[in-house]
Amino acid sequence: MQSKSLPDSAIHRVAVPAMGAVFVIIAWELIVCYGKVPTYILPAPAVVASALISNWGDLASALLNTARTAIFALTLSVVGGVAVAVILAQSRLIELFIAPITVFIQVMPIVAVAPLILIYAPDQSSAQLACAFVVTFFPIMMNTLQGLKDVDRDRADTVRLYTNSRWKMLVLLQMPSAMPGFFAGLKIGGGLALVGAVVAEFAAGSAGANAGLAFRLLEAQNKLNTPRLFAALVLLALLGAAIFLTISAIDRIALRHWYAARAATG
Predict the structure, then answer these.
(1) 86: domain CATH number?
(2) Coil, helix or strand for 132?
């Protein structure tokens, strides 16, 4: 029986990043303490933790608002991106027809597009969702489309021996072949959904009950409250990490046989 190597073990994958994070925090604390760096320039981790606890009410509410926008946009992008990829994979003519539109939208910086979306959207919540959707949609759609097109030719010929149905070809061969590409796009889209939500919040500047973490960042910056600013940044980083780790876990479960086959051949 072949033993599992250390780099592939779950303990190794968790312990090494955890030790890296602890090292960064300790180094950060030592630099601030021994370098006598002022708090308004770089607060120590203990000060940031204290600010996080004392401002937890406002920051937690903002965290939920930003997370809701990012996750909802990611969900819509999965549904829309997969649907569009399936349609484009069936017709090269359609893919070429809409190529200029997709390229134009994809290369436009979301920072430049966000003010226009705020003008045309019926409300700020819809505008924030649209901004996050725009930057998330294309990585998922393009990676899924590439996976649908990169089908093993021998397997495709075998399926055609039994059926000429495009639907069966899609379900039996193309969709399973596209799963690695889909999850690769989903991992990219998960981070971009958060970026889009934050950019939209910066542009909208919405306060009150609908305020997100971006607004709390601006608020702390205007008040020169650096510890609170860092506390909001920590929550943003943790939210992004949580989204990425969740998608990675689903990826590992859904494609465990694919990863096992690749490890065996590689």
Answers:
(1) 1.10.3720.10
(2) helix
Residue 229 CA to residue 55 CA, distance in Å, equals: 11
Q: Between the CA of residue 176 and those of 95, 141, 155, 163, what are the distances in Å? A: 21, 15, 12, 17
The single residue listed with the structure tokens 């312990």 is 15
Q: What is the pLDDT of residues 2-31, one digit of tens each?
A: 444 444 566 777 788 888 888 999 998 899
pLDDT at 3: 46
The reported pTM is: 0.83
Can you tell me the distance from the alpha carbon of 176 to that of 144, in angstroms, rounded to the nearest whole number?
11
User: Would you say how long the chain is, in residues?
Assistant: 266
Q: Which amino acid is at 68?
A: R
Cα 82 versus chain centre, distance: 16
- Contact between 174 and 148 under an 8 Å Cβ cutoff? The reply is yes
Asked if residue 194 is part of any domain, the answer here is yes
In a domain, 23, yes or no: no
Residue with token string 């379900």: 171
Judged by phi (left if over 0) then psi (alpha if -120 to 50, else beta), residue 156 lies in alpha
Both structure tokens of 10: 């779950």
Closest CA to 247 of 67, 63, 74, 69: 74
Residue ranges of the chain with pLDDT lower than 50?
1-7
With the CA atoms of 39, 45, 48 and 52 taken in that order, what torsion angle do they form, in degrees rounded to the nearest 10?
-170
Determine the structural domain holding residue 193 and report its residue range.
Answer: 41-265
Does residue 47 fall inside a structural domain?
yes
